Amino acid sequence: MDKKALLSLSCGMYVVGCSLNGKRNALIANTVFQLASKQPLVGVSISKDVFSHEVIAKSGYFSVSVLDSDAPMDFIKRLGFDSGIASDKTLGLCTAELSGVIVFLDHACACLAAKVIKLVDCQTHTLFIGEVLDAKLLTDGKALTYTAYRDNKGATPRFSPTFNVEPLQPLGKG
Amino acid sequence: MDKKALLSLSCGMYVVGCSLNGKRNALIANTVFQLASKQPLVGVSISKDVFSHEVIAKSGYFSVSVLDSDAPMDFIKRLGFDSGIASDKTLGLCTAELSGVIVFLDHACACLAAKVIKLVDCQTHTLFIGEVLDAKLLTDGKALTYTAYRDNKGATPRFSPTFNVEPLQPLGKG
Hints:
The structure is a homodimer of 174-residue chains. Chain A is mainly beta and 174 residues long. Chain A has three helices and nine strands; from the N terminus they run ββββαβαββββα.
């Protein structure tokens, strides 16, 4: 199998936000997608080894902020490669509530809030399927694609569902 | 809810292939994504109302061909807006077998074959989760994105999981 072929599957770059008992967290995800449209459903695949997995599973809610094509690499690295367990990596970030769910606004062109309705075991990852509670366009910016991020020498954390080739950086444990 | 915000979720354009008892079928999908990487898993969300749904559910296998950025609109329309129930819309198309699964090669830059390991009910759609049996790069072409397709006035069939706004064409029942 040529795992590089799997990189041909197009995806975007997102901040997935969540909170539990007043502690908030965010991670960078590229595997966010719409599953149904009549009553919109979205899915996000998250490694069982990262902190956000526990927070989303226990709280039952998550948000997705679509990163703008001009989102700085440092911002992505900060949320994508540091863990939120020991310290609050979201300190100082701009947030809002959408249907009661914390949403991260920095460098986002659109966002949505979702209520988890199903957890699907995908071996190393869990696919969280959420009913979209609300969705908003924030700017008229263009969404950052995973391809553009990689073309800009962005690395893929070991915990990403699309970790198919050698990483440029060691890990991400959001 | 502003459903247009959901269009900010990046996706690609794919031919999903399948066959049952010698009858083959293909449809255009944009909701194909990788869910896990160690043993690669992919998901594809397909309307319960289209013919391919029945074929994939009964056969337990599907293929994904990643459309190249120069794939002609007529080709996409043919596979995306006609149904394969009454006639064979794949007649004359170039195919191959990958791990025993039929794969459509026209205008594809990469492909994969998958065995269904889980069906997840998503109301109007079923998410088929497949273990990737094999994956191949076919050309060094760039993958067509859903955004580029729409920018080229490509329509979204009513049965798509991302049918969030008015269609330019009435339906697709692949």
